[in-house]
Amino acid sequence: MNNVEIWAQAVSEAVRNTQSSMGLYGQQLASIDSSEHEDFYTVAAAIVEPYIENPQACEAYFEYLENNADNWAQWIKQTFGDEWGAIAKVVAEEGY
Predict the structure, then answer these.
(1) How many whole angstroms separate alpha carbon 30 and alpha carbon 24?
(2) How far apart are CA 76 and CA 87, in angstroms?
(3) Of 11, 18, 49, 58, which is most buried, counting CB atoms within 10 Å of its CB?
(4) b/e for 3-40, b at 16 or more Cβ within 10 A?
(5) How many of the other CB atoms lie within 10 Å of CB of 73?
(6) pLDDT digits (tens, 9 = 90+) for 7-61
(7) Nearest to 94 by CA among 63, 64, 73
(8) Where are the domains of the chain?
(9) pTM of the full predicted structure?
(10) In the chain, which ranges are E strands?
(11) 77, 88 in Cβ contact below 8 A?
């Protein structure tokens, strides 16, 4: 299992675990077919992380995430549709 598959499974499990407390929002997430790995990989590619050894890049990246997470989730929604936007919102709020 490669890293992308591990992250895909982790996000899928996190979504399943939070669905019961999310009402209609959780029902919308439940309707997403998690077997569509190719689409997930496309969306996951939008998450770009800096090289961990570069403190300046990491600082800028984490500052951007802290201040612009809503913009990122909205971009995912506009680019890939409402279902992926819902997942991006969960990732923006809960981390990944």
Answers:
(1) 10
(2) 9
(3) 11
(4) eeeeebeebbebbeeeeeeeeeebeebeebebeeeebb
(5) 20
(6) 777 777 766 665 554 555 556 556 666 666 666 666 665 555 656 677 877 777 6
(7) 73
(8) 3-94
(9) 0.34
(10) none
(11) yes
